[in-house]
Write a structure and sequence with these properties.
Order of helices and strands: EEHHH
Helix content: 25-40%
Strand content: 5-15%
Shape: elongated
Distance between the termini: 66 Å
Number of strands: 2
Largest sheet: 2 strands, antiparallel
Strand order of the largest sheet: 1-2
């Protein structure tokens, strides 16, 4: 059974839609590859910051505590 032929929405190139193809079903394999040097990767922190993680966890605990134990007036 042949694979269905699709047209990429980015580059308008035709490709076979295979079951093990990564990415989106309407993009060719070349357009579905993640961009390693894109702007999202440039903003990602390279080093794990334990102080920032503890602050985020403390804020999460505080928000959960406020939601669980607040008094409804």
């Amino acid at each position: 059974m042949p694979f269905p032929i699709r047209t990429c929405v980015v580059c308008q190139e035709e490709f076979e839609l295979r079951p093990d193809k990564p990415g989106f079903a309407n993009r060719c394999p070349a357009c579905s590859e993640p961009e390693a040097t894109g702007p999202a990767a440039a903003n990602a922190p390279d080093v794990f910051d334990p102080k920032a993680a503890s602050e985020v966890n403390a804020a999460r605990r505080r928000a959960m505590r406020d939601l669980l134990y607040r008094k409804d007036s």
